[in-house]
Design goal:
alpha/beta; Rossmann fold; five-stranded parallel sheet
Length: about 180
């Protein structure tokens, strides 16, 4: 069995995230998706609140997910991945391969040192794999660009880079994120 572990901050969610989820869903038997619900409030940026992120997932994204995807909310998504590996280590799982999916930059957070410390037996038996996904393999967009679209009131591009299954709800999603200011 192959289980994908996918950490996503998603502030806001975009088509690149969705492409990563779909890729993991197609390549693995099961996908464990870890979503941050913390607030992203930074000087000079439009704030994205965790409660709004959760509402968007509950109302629009979860119903559109592939059937083999399970979502866990809250906490640090990266720490949740390590916790999932530690849990598998504790029960002595010898048959499952865990594949961590992330973009090619963020995958670097999962160093051999940390992986071997969190799940030494799984690591030694090569049951942990890394799948760094180039943005050109999915959709070339980032959270930074999406926040920039919001900041500049570039509604057209913001909507264009939302995940395809929820583009029909783009006005509702914008309203949630901007509290009706556009």
């Amino acid at each position: 069995m192959k289980i994908a572990l996918v950490p996503v901050s998603g502030k806001p969610i975009h088509a690149g995230h969705w492409g990563l989820i779909e890729l993991a869903s197609g390549e693995c038997d099961e996908v464990r998706l870890f979503i941050s619900t913390s607030d992203r409030v930074r000087k000079g940026e439009i704030p994205i609140y965790g409660r709004d992120t959760k509402r968007i997932w509950d109302d629009y994204l979860e119903p559109a997910l592939p059937s083999n995807v399970e979502v866990t909310y809250g906490g640090s998504p990266v720490q949740r991945v390590f916790a999932a590996l530690e849990d598998a280590e504790k029960i002595g799982d010898r048959t499952t391969t865990f594949v961590i999916y992330s973009d090619v930059e963020d995958i670097l957070k999962f160093t051999d040192e940390f992986l071997s410390r969190s799940a030494p037996s799984l690591f030694e038996r090569d049951q942990i794999r890394l799948r760094g996904v180039d943005r050109n393999e999915t959709v070339n967009v980032s959270g930074t660009r999406m926040r920039s679209f919001l900041e500049k009131s570039d509604v057209r591009n913001f909507k264009k880079f939302l995940p395809h299954p929820v583009q029909q709800y783009s006005d509702e999603i914008l309203s949630i994120l901007l509290k009706g200011s556009i």
